[in-house]
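Researcher: Next entry in the queue.
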Amino acid sequence: MARLEVDWAFLRSARGALKIARTLVALIAFSCFLGLGTYEAYTALAGTEIVITSLFLLLYLLRLNTRMRCLYWPLADILNSVISALFLLAMSLFALITKTSKGTLTGGVFGVILLVLCIVDIVLLCKKISLDKARGRSAPAQ
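Model: Structure for this entry, 142 residues:
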């Protein structure tokens, strides 16, 4: 039976810290929306963000991305971040515009912070993909 390795260096990296920050900010936004019983769509989006980001964090932390080669995981992570950013943009704007309660307003502010973290994650992942491509190229024939 194969043992799972834990990549502790990932937690200390910028990408690991960003995944943890995304999870925590999504948890705060979720609790703001859930605490005051605001719209279910806000709560569902924040809860989905917690689950998906936590799963990507576990994927990289346990190095499952090296075992499961069926997907190119950084690209899947970029697609997740882009889709999350689009939904968070709409959700945060609606939450900030409606201002139905303090919880909705606070959740909208944390949604905007989460949106910024998603954009930073996209940039870091794009840099990682471009570096991986540069390393994978072979030297030109002479």
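Model: Helices lie at 8-12, 14-35, 40-61, 64-67, 73-98, 102-136.
Researcher: Noted, moving on.
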